[in-house]
Amino acid sequence: MSAIMIGQDKFKISEDEVAKRELKVIKVSDDVIQVQEEIHGIIALVGATSTVNIKKEELKNLIKVVKEEFGWTDICE
Asked: Coil, strand, or helix at residue 67?
């Protein structure tokens, strides 16, 4: 299954550069999902820790996708 985009935006990182952010979700198995945050336009983080920032609207979209697309009917809003 391909990734489903649940959010995207752009933000200024310098006078001349704007980064593009995309938040996607993929079903890994029946009870596991993977949330991916892709940032284009800047050098990615280096290290062992990774975080994903999720906006309120993106969380609502995530809940909708896992219910409707992945069949997780026991997820509350």
From this structure: helix
